[in-house]
Amino acid sequence: MTLDDLTDATEFLTVNRQFGTAFQYHDFDSIQSAYDLGEAYGKDAGELLSNLVDAYVLAEALNAGSTVTGGTLATSNVIPSISAVKQALRKKNVSSTNLYGVISPEFESIMTQYVEAKETALGDKVGENGYIGMYMGVKFHVSNQLTSTASLALATNVTAGDTVTIAGQVFTFRAVPAVA
Hints:
Blueprint: H1 27-32, H2 37-58, H3 78-91, E1 99-103, H4 105-116, H5 121-129, E2 134-135, E3 138-142, E4 163-166, E5 169-172
Parallel strand pairs: 1-3
Antiparallel strand pairs: 2-3, 4-5
């Protein structure tokens, strides 16, 4: 037998950011408030920090070596969508244990509608408390910090003055570059 040299995978994670926040409030503010201000401010700060960490970590998805395209998510294709992702991971020899998925609130809404409509114990639990948790062997986490891309396909070339609305923001095309 010949001993093989063992090497680690070329994948790595560099932790080069440290997040924190500080706030101050006066005891007089606590006396006037019916709420525990330290707890309320702490909870708000925790959410802010959580969103920052999510944003930095999830931005790394843009560097992914693989993508899975499944079309528009609907209650009719929840299982095929999750299955396609799991299949792609297995083809890359990713272990099928300890799978985690970060999904958008929109994806969560569709999954909730799909699962809650099932006549099962899980469907009943989702109907009672709205929590999906693990589904199809994947532990799901919901985040507003996901990245996304979109393509705007126009039938004709735009002219100055034409507009397009994206997420409530109106963009006006100009002959000379300008602000939105």
